[in-house]
Amino acid sequence: MPAGFIALDWGTTSFRAYLVAPDGAVRDSRASAEGILSVTDGAFEPVFERQIAGWNPALPVLASGMITSRQGWREVPYAAAPAGLAELAAGVARFRTGGGRDVIFVPGVSCRADGGVPDVMRGEETQIIGALDGPSGLFVMRGTHCKWVVVEAGRIVRFATFMTGEMFAVLRGHSILGRLMTGETDEGPGFARGVAAGLAGGAGLLHDLFSVRTLGLFGEMAGDELPTYLSGLLIGSEIAGARRLFAVGTHGVTVIGAPNLAVPFGRALAIAGVAWRFGPPEAAVRGLAKIGGQVGVIG
Amino acid sequence: MPAGFIALDWGTTSFRAYLVAPDGAVRDSRASAEGILSVTDGAFEPVFERQIAGWNPALPVLASGMITSRQGWREVPYAAAPAGLAELAAGVARFRTGGGRDVIFVPGVSCRADGGVPDVMRGEETQIIGALDGPSGLFVMRGTHCKWVVVEAGRIVRFATFMTGEMFAVLRGHSILGRLMTGETDEGPGFARGVAAGLAGGAGLLHDLFSVRTLGLFGEMAGDELPTYLSGLLIGSEIAGARRLFAVGTHGVTVIGAPNLAVPFGRALAIAGVAWRFGPPEAAVRGLAKIGGQVGVIG
Questions:
Q1: Of the candidates A175, A205, A220, which has its C-beta nearest B204's C-beta?
Q2: Are the beta carbons of A76 and A108 closer than 8 angstroms?
Q3: Contact across the interface for A237 and B164, Cβ inside 8 Å
Q4: Considering only B7-16, B119-128, B180-189, which range has the smallest mean pLDDT?
Q5: For testing the chain A interface, which of B37, B147, B163 should be mutated: the one with the most A CBs within 10 Å?
Q6: Which of A39, A80, B217, B252 is 20 to 30 A distant from B80 in Cα terms?
Q7: Beta bridge partners of A152
Q8: 3-class DSSP state of B115
Q9: CA distance B290 to B85
């Protein structure tokens, strides 16, 4: 067995690589904004080699995230839910780079909602495998596209994507709702008020969102409070929607994501009266280590 | 009394002016994409004069729309609901232009939802006054920001804005949902499927919208059908939300707006089982004539 491995978590807008010792400890790491969308002409290998320059070329590379998508380095078919460690390991794609590195790509997971509509994830399945400390749980992954994921008997059985993060960005950047926003503050009651409005639902999001405009227009909320109000409104709406799909109270919720996203989401769950906890850090590295062990490339 | 008047419907993204005879007939009209957002340095008068060059300068001008907003020619305070012909007439702002034209600006209308959140319209109130052929009704105004408006005893008593049109534009133009769209067709079941999904609500819009991505990704909906599916999904969600606010079945619905917006919306109402009819054409001109009569500037 080689002395550790390289963990690669390469997403749409970010690159993260970890040099992992045999005992699972992270010895070195690299991060950049070179997500797969910034790589032109399929030149993934040179970007990768430049980022990890100096790391042992004999180490196997275990990778997950959008790098395994059609727009990535190699497309790997989704594993259909239910999918756990065994199914993910069975679905890996192996190849050798031009420079002679062995790369193992972990598949994403797909599922079908009751109405037959597909849903997908790439990368989150690996974080969940890494975060699992029991047979079951309800996980919420924060990011551009948030995922609520039900795990039973160690396998992802169903999940739902919510476009909360992307919706915030496009509404703030490209809609009338961004016009009255001036700076950004977390002070004040804006976030909690937004969460409450989103949870209540009212006449639905297409109506409720207009309050970001009118509260600003009437001077009833400061311009620097409107962004956090919008964020709260979207998150509250997401939680209300997820409650209609999942037995949130039964499971409790494990929240995984960067602190700037996970912390306010936890505040919103608390407002909604939902018990929750943070998942472990570096869940992706832990997940890749488990999958690497399962497929026999790391000890 | 002068021989007719000039009706001006000047919105955020469009300019419309009508030369109206004393009997209410439209003798001439001008339309352009010079909405108030395209006018720089407050130069509304030169744009207006250029558009209506040659029309009798002695005629009074009756105007409504976003031209009366803070970003417009003169800001006119909202009339608070309930507001009908008398309240709108009482709230008009009169001024004389540099060139000596008499202009009468019609106020918009504001209301408060049960939770105290304000809502606003500018221009739609005038269309409703023009479209009213009885003491009460439920009106739906199609546009960037759609309005559902309850009229009782000839007055606008409450209403709700839905950001359906703008949401479609920003999601198509600036989110991942536009990526797989190729051209646009109204053929196929995409629109009806979207309406049904939006009406059902599922886990809410933030989740349901992701189906625009996954149905395309899985090849289960053609790229040229995705735009109309997205449109249907948003409209279905709007109708579901409005039903929670208004007694839709009791009133029946009068739909007002450009045919390219009003016709598909009527299809969606039919799918939802809601009785509806189109409002009269040129409702804004009819409304401005009624208000002009009430304030005594036209005969």
A1: A205
A2: yes
A3: no
A4: B180-189
A5: B163
A6: B252
A7: A155
A8: coil
A9: 8
- Mark yes or no for CB contact B209/A234 under 8 Å: no
**Chain B residues with CB inside 8 Å of A174's CB?**
170, 173-174
Residue A172, both tokens: 């703030």
CA distance B207 to chain A (A): 4
- Residue A247 confidence class, pLDDT cut points 50, 70, 90: confident
pLDDT digits (tens, 9 = 90+) for B9-67: 999 889 999 999 999 999 999 999 999 989 999 999 999 999 999 999 999 999 999 99
Instruction: Return the amino acid letter for A176.
Output: I
Q: What is the mean pLDDT of residues A146-154?
A: 97
Extract the tokens encoding A211: 């309050």
Write down the domain spans for chain B.
5-133+281-295, 162-278
Which residue has 């417009």 as its token pair? B72
- Residue of B112, B145, B206, B214 to mutate when probing chain A, most A C-beta within 10 A: B206
The pLDDT score that the predictor gives to residue B250 is 66
CATH level 3 topology of B162-278: Nucleotidyltransferase; domain 5 (3.30.420)
**Residue ranges of B 185-204 with Cβ closer than 8 A to chain A:** 197, 200-204
Q: How far apart are CA B277 and CA B23, in angstroms?
A: 26
- Which of B113, B118, B175 is facing A218, going by the closest CB pair? B118
Fold: same for A5-133+281-295 and A162-278: yes
Maximum distance among all alpha carbons in chain B?
66
Q: How confident is the model at residue B183 (pLDDT cuts 50, 70, 90)?
A: confident
pLDDT at A153 over 70: yes
Chain B interface, best mutation among A149, A163, A168, by max B CB count within 10 A: A163
Q: What is the pLDDT of residue B114?
A: 78
Amino acid type, A80: A
Query: B164 and A206 in contact by Cβ < 8 A?
Result: yes
Name the average pLDDT for chain B: 94
What backbone torsions phi and psi does residue A129 show, to the nearest 5 degrees? Answer: -55, -40
Partner residue facing B204 (CB), from A117, A217, A237: A237
Whether A115 sits inside 8 A of B197 (CB atoms) is: yes
Q: How many residues does chain B have?
A: 299
Tell me if chain A has a CB within 8 Å of the CB of B167: yes
A80 touching B (Cβ < 8 Å)? no
Span between the terminal Cα atoms of chain A, in Å: 6
Extract the tokens encoding B50: 């250029």
A5 membership: H or E segment, kind and range: strand A5-10
Q: Which CATH architecture has domain A5-133+281-295?
A: 2-Layer Sandwich (3.30)
Q: Give A183→chain B minimum CA distance, Å.
A: 21
pLDDT of res. B184: 84
Q: What Cα–Cα distance (Å) separates residue A129 from each residue in A5, A255, A292, B179?
A: 17, 14, 12, 30
A281 prior amide bond cis, ω within 30: no
Which residues in B257-294 are b (16+ Cβ under 10 Å) and which e? beeebbebbbbbbebbebebeebeebbbbbbbbbbbeb
Q: Percent of chain A at pLDDT above 90?
A: 90
